[in-house]
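ESCALATION

Customer reports they have been waiting on this structure for their group meeting. Please prioritize. Original submission:
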Amino acid sequence: MPEIPKPNYDDPKEVYAFFGLAYYQAAVLEHGVLNLAVAMLAKRVPGITAGDVEGLYQSFDKSPFGQVISVAKAKFDIPSGLESDLALALEKRNYLAHRFFVVHDIDFMTPTGRRAMIDELIEILEHLQSVDTRMDDIWMSAWESFGITKEWIEQKKREFVSERNNCGQ
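Update from on-call: job pushed to the front of the queue and completed.
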């Protein structure tokens, strides 16, 4: 997990930067929950193929985060502490998407208000990272039955980065 940068609070653009980090982390968490949901659904498909797995991922393309969580919870017994933190993460994600800048419309106009906004975004980011870290262990274990391990994923990432770097030359 990348370390959260320390704000210096002197540039109004920092609000946008920390908002972007928080919303990015919400998207990463959402995909982790999606990984769990797809893995659990894939286990129920005899002789599943890579195309079937891709189809399962695509079936969630327009699904809201709350619906993805519901599918994952229906197929996997998420520990109660994590389940409540995941519910709070959903609330925080929706708050970012729909209300954060509305709630802080006046705050953005002052240095003190922007500081409060950044501090709140850091708090949200920390919660989302914490939940994502715990979800990673769960969805990774769900995929291990298909031979998908952390090592396999790391190898595929290295290959992807290498291919990208070679294409850009």
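Sent to customer with the following note: Helices lie at 13-42, 50-58, 65-75, 80-98, 100-103, 111-144, 150-167.
Escalation resolved.
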